[in-house]
Specification:
About 0% of the residues lie in helices and about 45% in strands. It is mainly β. The strands form 20 sheets. The chain has a four-stranded antiparallel sheet, with no helix packed on it. A four-stranded antiparallel sheet has the order 2-3-4-5, with no helix packed on it. About 50% of the residues are buried.
Length: about 575
């Protein structure tokens, strides 16, 4: 039934299969003498504390909105539930709520702001209670086979579509009781909604048909009992979710028709369905807020969309939240602004520093020139660089604004990471040619590439203040130094060897090396002391999900991107 969800990430899977080290680190800094790889006993290291500053979407399957306009979504493939805070006109950076979910399908909000999750993979319905403005850890309300759809009525009762059909988890004297089966319905996607009168609406298949031909069924509520299901809309193509507004109009995610439709209520019955404006790729979930705005869990588009209602008319769907779609590159400028290679959206975006946090991501550039963009970097003058193999593009920084991208027409195969020295010379990890190359800058123009070293899996790059070059090798399992002597580089020296695919790398102002391992999901540090690097790497942070990129800002704060989240790492 969920086979439709496997049409995902094809471009990213291609990227990650052929290029195991799609990473980026900042240009690095520091004031250290030319280090040596012969070590002394390292000083004590500090464990880093991680804090999520941005969560992005992989396959949104369910969506809900609370009375304050905050948006909640179930991200089926990342096993996460996320909140997109409403900031009074704009939406903030998504944050992760709770943990321990296994392919969550739908979310719902009650009148008190408590959050409910249909945790399909765990065959459970869970509540995240709201207290003091914060959500507590998930509490299991019931074990139900294959919990799919989810709705909450005005009395706080929870309704679930699952392997039993439609179940009700009653709220009695402030506590939830044993689930009661209401009706058996042959369902396709498990969508369910409840109106202000207690009537239920579910997605069901026509008798004797397959999931290609589905309909919306009403289960009428009268006198404390539920009647037999009645068809109110038909001719849908693998529809997966349904919602109802305060005027009893229905909205449906008509998935295989790539549409979201309104089924208007005329006072005595329902009229023909009407498509709403927007480009939807396998929409999964739909909900309506108190003002009549429709929200859509975009599924294959890795987005949450809002279809605004104004003067009785629905506008064009717009994204809310980060809108990142499988980002695979991260960099920071001297002011701490973060830049993201939004790979499957073919875009480069900035997360500006704002009030001690980060504002809504802003688009710097997008389009065909940025197809499958990765990586991204910032040179010492604030210009942003991005690669869409084999092109390297530059977004010139003009005092607070970025100009249109310029193709530098540099001879390179598959750029995997950028770094710059203080003279502005560009260093590139060329994955397809298994080399690290330098493009010398002369009078503002980059010259022909100079091959500095061969490496089997050229990954992340960083330079220290004296020009020593450091890079990771995921395939070979090493962190390397390429020491600089005068105007040339000596042979590479292994600083650390590991079987766990070292990917991302960054240097702090002391010359200490931080690198992230995709195999262990750890961040490790190699300390520099008295001009020598320690002989062993020490774990300073852990518990990530396939780290992709690591960068460091001017203040020395580390940022890590994994497949689900952007994290800040502080002592």
């Amino acid at each position: 039934m969920r086979a439709i969800q496997i049409a995902l990430r094809s471009r990213v899977e291609m990227l990650s299969t052929c290029c195991l080290s799609i990473v980026l680190s900042a240009c690095g800094g520091g004031s250290s003498s030319a280090p040596s790889s012969t070590g002394t006993t390292p000083p004590t290291v500090q464990t880093l504390t991680k804090q999520a500053i941005a969560a992005y979407f992989e396959f949104p399957s369910g969506v809900a909105v609370d009375a304050n306009g905050n948006v909640f979504m179930a991200d089926f493939l990342t096993n996460q539930v996320k909140e997109i805070p409403f900031l009074g006109g704009t939406y903030g950076i998504p944050i992760v709520l709770g943990s321990g979910f296994n392919h969550p399908q739908r979310v719902a909000i009650d009148a008190n702001g408590n959050l409910f999750v249909a945790d399909q993979g765990n065959n459970a319905v869970k509540e995240l209670p709201l207290s003091g403005g914060k959500y507590g850890p998930p509490v299991s309300l019931a074990s139900l086979p294959g919990a799919l759809g989810l709705a909450v009525d005005t009395q706080g009762n929870v309704f679930v579509t699952d392997g039993n059909g439609v179940d009700k988890i009653p709220l009695e004297a402030g506590s939830y009781g044993t689930p009661v089966n209401l009706v058996s319905v042959v369902g396709s996607g498990g969508g369910i909604a409840v109106d202000a009168h207690g009537n239920l609406f579910v997605i069901g298949e026509n008798v004797g048909s397959d999931a290609i031909n589905v309909e919306i069924l009403e289960i009428p509520f009268s006198g404390g009992t539920y009647g037999a299901p009645v068809t109110v809309a038909a001719g849908l193509n693998y529809a997966l979710d349904v919602a109802v507004d305060a005027s009893d109009n229905l909205f449906v995610a008509d998935t295989n028709n790539y549409a979201v439709k309104e089924v208007p209520f005329n006072g005595s019955g329902y009229g023909p369905s009407v498509p709403l404006n927007g480009n939807f790729s396998l929409p999964q979930g739909v909900t309506v807020d108190a003002k009549g705005n429709v929200f859509v869990a975009g599924g294959n588009s890795a987005s949450v969309m809002k279809i605004p209602l104004s003067s009785g008319t629905y506008g064009v769907a717009i994204p809310v939240g980060s809108g990142f779609n499988n980002p695979f590159g991260l960099a920071a400028d001297a002011s701490g602004n973060l830049f993201v290679a939004d790979t499957l959206n073919d875009a480069v975006k900035e997360m500006p520093v704002s009030g001690g946090g980060y504002g809504t991501p802003e688009l710097i550039g997008s389009g065909d020139d940025l197809f499958d963009v990765t990586p991204v970097g910032v040179d010492p003058n604030g210009n942003v660089f991005a690669a869409s193999s084999p092109k390297i593009l530059k977004f010139p920084f003009n005092g607070g604004r970025y100009g249109a991208p310029v193709d530098l027409r540099l001879s390179v195969g598959q750029p995997n990471a950028f770094a710059w020295d203080r003279q502005g010379n560009l260093f590139v990890a060329d994955y397809s040619n298994n080399t690290v190359v330098e493009f010398p800058l002369t009078a503002g123009v980059f010259g022909s590439p100079i091959t500095l070293t061969a490496v089997s899996g050229a990954g992340s790059l960083a330079l220290d203040a004296t020009g020593n070059l450091f890079f990771t090798d995921c395939i070979g399992g090493s962190v390397w130094e390429l020491p600089r002597s005068g105007a040339s580089y000596g042979p590479k020296v292994a600083l650390s060897t590991t079987p766990n695919c070292p990917r991302a790398l960054a240097l702090d102002t002391n010359g200490d090396i931080f690198f992230a391992e995709a195999g262990s999901n750890d961040v490790k540090e190699i300390l520099l002391s008295a001009g020598h690097y320690s002989t062993s790497a020490v774990t300073v942070a852990s518990g990530f999900d396939s780290p992709i990129a690591l960068t460091i800002d001017h203040s020395g704060r580390l940022y890590l991107m994994d497949v689900n989240t952007i994290w800040s790492l502080t002592p």
